[in-house]
Design a protein that fits this description.
This protein has 161 residues and is mainly alpha-helical. The chain has two domains: 70 residues; 90 residues, Winged helix-like DNA-binding domain superfamily/Winged helix DNA-binding domain (Arc Repressor Mutant, subunit A), CATH 1.10.10.10. The chain has five helices and three strands. Strands 1-3-2 form a three-stranded antiparallel beta sheet. It is rod-shaped. The model has no long low-confidence stretch (mean pLDDT 84).
């Protein structure tokens, strides 16, 4: 009977040692996961900062483009989707988010972003503002006034009815 107890105690000690090894391995994995999570969080925060800086830089470039153009605007002909985005911006009383533009026209946000870039490359002057980590866009007020007076984009009244 004493031999059986000794064997039982040895088995329990062996099991405890094995559990200790498993526990140590799990703790090492948990530490590695926590380190990776911290690194991912830091990188995500960094990317958000970079994105905000890029948006502010874009707004500054738009402002420089506006001041450099000296009120002389030449707009290349717009495609149908560019025209729809332009018309929505032209008839809007305020700034619109990329998401709102996409919803109103039935496009994705990335398509709207691409169309806005195309509008700028064709000579349409936009005003952008970063508000609560959301980019808002509108036609530049001076450009909008000039569009009303000189019809730079060649819109017809039929477009609005």
């Amino acid at each position: 009977m004493l031999v059986e107890v000794k064997n039982g105690v040895k088995a329990v000690v062996k099991t405890i040692n094995e559990f200790s090894k498993v526990k140590q391995a799990i703790e090492e994995h948990l530490l590695a996961i926590n380190e990776n999570s911290s690194e991912i969080t830091a990188l995500f925060d960094y990317l958000q900062d970079v994105e905000g800086k890029m948006d502010r830089l874009s707004a500054r470039l738009d402002s420089l483009q506006l001041s450099h153009s000296c009120e002389k605007y030449e707009v290349s002909p717009l495609g149908s989707m560019e025209r729809k985005v332009f018309e929505l911006l032209y008839t809007s009383a305020g700034r619109l988010s990329y998401t709102k533009l996409a919803e109103n026209i039935g496009l994705s946000v990335s398509e709207v972003s691409s169309i806005l870039s195309s509008l700028v490359s064709k000579g349409v002057v936009l005003s952008r503002q970063l508000l609560h980590k959301q980019m808002l866009v509108s036609l530049d007020p001076r450009f909008k006034d000039l569009q009303a007076k000189e019809n730079l984009v060649n819109l017809s009244l039929d477009t609005f009815f």
